[in-house]
Description:
Layout: H1 22-29, E1 35-40, E2 43-48, E3 52-54, H2 68-71, E4 72-78, E5 81-87, H3 91-101, E6 104-107, H4 108-111, H5 117-134, E7 146-149, E8 154-157, E9 165-166, E10 171-180, E11 183-188, E12 200-203, H6 210-222, E13 226-237, E14 242-251, E15 265-269, H7 271-276, H8 287-296
Parallel strand pairs: 1-5, 10-14
Antiparallel strand pairs: 1-2, 2-3, 2-6, 4-5, 7-8, 8-9, 10-11, 10-12, 11-15, 13-14
Amino acid sequence: MIIKNTSTNHCLDRTSAYRSDEAWITEKLYDEKTHIIPVHNLNMLCTNTPDITAVYLTHKDFDSSADLINNCVFLGIYNETPCFSVDINTTELASKLCRLTGATFENFKSVATLLDTPSSELLALARFMSFWHSRNLYCGKCGHKTNRSESGHVRICQNELCKEHYYPNMDPAIIVLVTSGNRCLLGRQQNWKEGMYSTLAGFVEPGETIEQAVVREIQEEAGITVHNIEYQGSQSWLFPNSLMLGFSAIAKDESITLDTNELEDARWFSPEQIRSDPLVLPYQNSIAYTLITAWLENFD
């Protein structure tokens, strides 16, 4: 089973070489063609008339209170258009932008699957960068305040005797479609919507390879030993900062011993059951959905 990796279809040119070029960054930030994505309390500005659409602003939509140059992050260039995000730190400014655009700041998780793929990926990145900045305002080494640098991609401790640098980080996690003959193993967590099942997943622990993480997680959550582990693809999952590494694996046995602290239920499903049961699969842009549907294609 090899999944079709569509993550390279909508490539953002990060243009990282220009992040330290303050003149270039300023020029692009104040270019009228530039798209600026506002982030307020990790919520994203969207319209819903009639469809959910991301709102992109220009520098002219902000007053001086936004302090764009000190609150922005240069995301990159998409379709020859420079893209920035900016943190909206006051309710007053957020309300003003809502009145200006007729849009509202929405919980990104609730709209992510309704946006077009490029917008969803851009907004996810903007939201993640805002999340990262908000949690690195102070130096973890000496406790002094940190400042933005490199157009928002680095934070540096202000203490002259410290000057510690902080960079955005991702947490690797594995997600696995386990199969046994013509059945696959799916599980569900208690807080998921009714009837939803997905592939099993978990974080990679320190000192562990990703293959070791696959074996450990499936054993811990379902009591099943797996082998024939094959990498299938990856997906950035910025809720808040995970990199999902997709695998397939084959079970050595089918006897499930459930870890109820992790899962509410886990069971084996045949292709017919997945297609005919009132089963709710993960949303279509997720790697979990891709792993499941790629496996189903073997039984068409």
